[in-house]
Amino acid sequence: TTPSGPQNVVPIDPKTLEAARKALAPSLGPIAATVVSRAAKRVHSVEELRDALAAEIVDEKERKAFLNAFR
C-alpha cells in the first residue's frame, strides 16, 4: 500500500473471491469478476466485501439471493 492508502487491508482468500464471483454472476453477469476484484481491493474483511457487493445489486430479490448464496 501507499502511505496515503489503506494500511490494514488483509488479502481475501482466493476461494472466497471465487465464491463471491459465483454468487454475484446471476445478478451481474460477466462483469461480476471485475466488480469482485475492485471491491476486494478496498475492503478489510469478508463481511465488508459481502456488503459492498450486495450494494451493487439493484433488484432487492436478487440482492437477497446473493446474500443467501454468499455467506
Keyword list:
4 helices; mainly alpha
Computed over alpha carbons, the radius of gyration is 12 Å
- Strand tally is 0
CA-based shape: globular
Mean pLDDT: 89
Low-confidence segments, ≥5 residues, pLDDT <50? none
Query: Roughly what fraction of the amino acids lie in strands?
Result: under 5%
- Strand count, sense and closure of the main sheet? none
Structure class: mainly alpha
3D structure, described in words:
The protein has 71 residues and is mainly α. Helix content is 63%, strand content 0%. α1 (14-28) packs antiparallel against α4.
Provide a compact summary of the structure:
The chain has helices at 14-28, 32-42, 46-54, 60-69. The chain is mainly alpha-helical and 71 residues long. The longest helix is centred in the N-terminal third of the chain and has 15 residues, at 14-28.
Secondary-structure map:
Elements: H1 14-28, H2 32-42, H3 46-54, H4 60-69
Helix pairs in contact: 1-2, 1-4
